[in-house]
Amino acid sequence: EPEVTQTPSHQVTQMGQEVILHCVPISNHLYFYWYRQILGQKVEFLVSFYNNEISEKSEIFDDQFSVERPDGSNFTLKIRSTKLEDSAMYFCASSAGLAGAQGQFFGPGTRLTVL
Amino acid sequence: AQSVTQLGSHVSVSEGALVLLRCNYSSSVPPYLFWYVQYPNQGLQLLLKYTSAATLVKGINDFEAEFKKSETSFHLTKPSAHMSDAAEYFCAVSGRSSGSARQLTFGSGTQLTVLP
Q1: How far apart are CA B62 and CA B56, in angstroms?
Q2: Are the beta carbons of B106 and A106 separated by less than 8 Å?
Q3: Could you give the count of Cα atoms lying within 13 Å of B100 in the half-sphere of its Cβ?
Q4: pLDDT tens track for A12-51
């Protein structure tokens, strides 16, 4: 069964460093998303991406964040200068159509620890 | 804006007993609703979704949920709990309009413990 994959599973970085989180969405899906879950808190929407551009973004997704689809299979989230409060589990998701019609399929997540 | 509230951050049931996990939504129009499950150290797996067809939705592993507009609820049930059902369960909502349909808003989650 097709699935969303994410690498690395765990990333440790120093405050102020740049990190790039990698995702490979399901191959025939057209919509891509990033969410995060700070320990003990809700899963929060960060950004959605369609047709090579951002569709929606939340207040969390400020200038420190960027997304890219560098080729036909990868979808990345870059945090330019990490802060302690960026420590969280980051989930990538994809859907074939708009979220309501199909549901979104999530990857296993990347745990980011900022020291 | 849509939101969901999950009543009960922790629920414990005995193996073989009924599972009932509660979710209430807030939305100006009937939304799309979802239940996801997260097993330890894994991602979010879609259990079932409501998209305005039948109000009683069946999902994987014998879970089902009923959309009740009058109660703004979408509670998740399973007739008989298995030990393998122990996990965290998230209710989520998505809007129908083009501007909001692309993001999911999650509840706080309910940790289900199944006792032998």
Answers
A1: 13
A2: no
A3: 15
A4: 999 999 999 999 999 989 899 999 999 888 899 999 998 8
